[in-house]
Amino acid sequence: MSLYKSPYEGLETPALLLSRPAFERNLSRMRSKVESAGLALRPHVKTVKCAQAWLRALGSAPRVTVSTLLEAEDAFANGVVDILYAVGIAPSKLARAAALVERGADLTLAVDTVEAARAVAAAGGAAGVTLPAVVEIDSDGHRAGVASGSELALAVARALKAPGARFRGVMTHAGGSYACGSPDEIAGMAERERAAVVNAAAALAEAGLPSEIISMGSTPTVTFARSFAGVTEARVGVYMTMDLVMADLGVCSTDDIALSVATSVIGRQPLRGEILIDAGWMAMSRDPGSGRHGLGRVCDAFGAPIGDLVVSSANQEHGIVTSPGGGAIAFDDFPVGRALRVLPNHACATGAQFDRYHVLDEAGRIEAIWPRINGW
Amino acid sequence: MSLYKSPYEGLETPALLLSRPAFERNLSRMRSKVESAGLALRPHVKTVKCAQAWLRALGSAPRVTVSTLLEAEDAFANGVVDILYAVGIAPSKLARAAALVERGADLTLAVDTVEAARAVAAAGGAAGVTLPAVVEIDSDGHRAGVASGSELALAVARALKAPGARFRGVMTHAGGSYACGSPDEIAGMAERERAAVVNAAAALAEAGLPSEIISMGSTPTVTFARSFAGVTEARVGVYMTMDLVMADLGVCSTDDIALSVATSVIGRQPLRGEILIDAGWMAMSRDPGSGRHGLGRVCDAFGAPIGDLVVSSANQEHGIVTSPGGGAIAFDDFPVGRALRVLPNHACATGAQFDRYHVLDEAGRIEAIWPRINGW
Known about the structure:
CATH class of the largest domain in chain A: Alpha Beta
Strand order of the largest sheet of chain A: 2-9-8-7-6-5-4-3
Shape of chain A: elongated
Largest sheet of chain A: 8 strands, parallel
CATH superfamily of the largest domain in chain A: Alanine racemase
Structural class of chain A: alpha/beta
Oligomer: homodimer
């Protein structure tokens, strides 16, 4: 059987690939942007979920953002003490959070209700530790958080001034930036994010609650922000690998996407204009991204996109590749067994389908295997 | 904090729940339907990916269907010898498949190209084993397979008559049944599936290639099929847990859905009519299902749906619950920490986000933890 040349010949597919050169470029670019603006970089580990990867992303003052307590425990085990858990905390998780603080982690929680703030204080008290928390501010009407400068923000912050808890500051996340249409619009969203969190901190400081942490961030807003005045740190995650959503937003080029799925041709339906591959939704996830690339963009084994080919639909272990533009596919170029790569819509979602990365060097050869931590 | 009563109080969320009573009912119903029709049941392990679960589903002649070689190895380790790998095989997987046959597994592969059939024979020859394979027949224009009775079907089957390989029969899968509008339409699809595979076997038998395996199946078609004449076995998987897609197709009732995600309220946005929970897309998957329930239907901790509440959108670890009908939500009934459950659109996709099941008894209490095997 004629197999097209592949730099990772014989790799069993599907497999998750991480191109180290692109990854390292992404890390440098973001570190420069954030640190040259005079604020601290607090990378979010939820995209890569892999210490070998995010340890390379740390800024000069090591600190991370996490989305699960498992990530927090893994960060602490890998030597990072300053950890922000940036999801509203559920009371059933507090004993585990307190245990990590007891062991020496400087773990900060996030709350946006008086109830949650009281639960934090109660759990800290019960465990005999002090649990610090930030108040989450809503800067874009997108998800969680209380309004900047509101009575509620003050009430939540005050509820943290109790034995067992400690008010530490404010954070916000403009997830709405993912829906922006241009870099200018994203810059506007970044300014909303900055203003919301800085004004929130000012109002709380006036009421006698000064903020040690004033935190904003998403990869798009931090990339295009024109000012970080008053902000102490930036939280960013997906910039490490980038993905098609980031490329569509203009945050990166397709060449910057460090993550892809290695796959093999397993069949063809020439009459229907379809190539079948062994990367179904189990490998790609069902994340629709911007809706412009099916479940991912099809590349050769070196990562170069092939025409307009995308994974237009998928079953669990079958991906169906078509040309959305209706271009003729040279089926002879896609023998069974040919190695291909697929660029993901959303790196966080595609990564989560795998338990390890095959790390590629400059020539696209496998140079290492890095494990991921999934679950909670 | 007032927590609503939950039968699994204190469980850290999100967690994957499997209600054993509903699960056992689903198994009995399908086993009766298939075995009373005089054919063999070959359950597909890809939905549950858990030997403790699928061992309970075996028919009187133990055999399983798998979608990955990891599932095949796990089945063999759990005492099942007769295994059908029902995805077109990629050549890079053949050495591993041959090793399993070498160890004593009766592993049957699936092919739908002459190239793949030749690769199977070559790999069997190289490993000094005989690799049996079925020819996949396309019964619905949906995905893989060759046309029933075609020259190509004959050519693929003949390519398996070579040292290192063995022609074993035919299989088909009417994935198109998921798009049917009524049980009658599904019954029609089942008849197409039956006719395609039986006619394919007849044509091959006439050419001197008799089929030992004549296999059809999907949960919808096997549920509503009026005849299995000429078929030797039925392949079904999602019936074990059911899900909202199956309920929407009329295959089951909501009460039959044995799988759900345990979650906790983590916040509220009363002005926007939103409850925030800690089951985001990382817990639910992004599978859109029929498009009628967001990412899943919200129930109380005992599994009873609450009005028309659904997870209407999600981020990685945040689910946003709304009433699509615009009904007022009694926010006082959703304190931070309240235990809820979410029914999944697609059990295969939601299950894949977790590494274990919390198995619930009749009263909804946790009686066991069963591990899943994810990955490849």
